[in-house]
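Many introductory courses stop at the sequence. We go one step further.
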Amino acid sequence: MPILQIHLIEGRTVEQKRALVEKVTQAVCETVNVTPEHVKIILMDMARHDYATAGILKSDEQK
């Protein structure tokens, strides 16, 4: 039973998350030969101040 955890910066819509889990499930099923019922996905929303790249918080980046 594949269990996937996907971390996202907050702000995605439910529709975007729905599309993401649908396509990820399909890819996992095709790749590791399991049925969709066996694929578990945990989506983790992160605040922009909880993620950094190269020592800079995402919330501090220029937009």
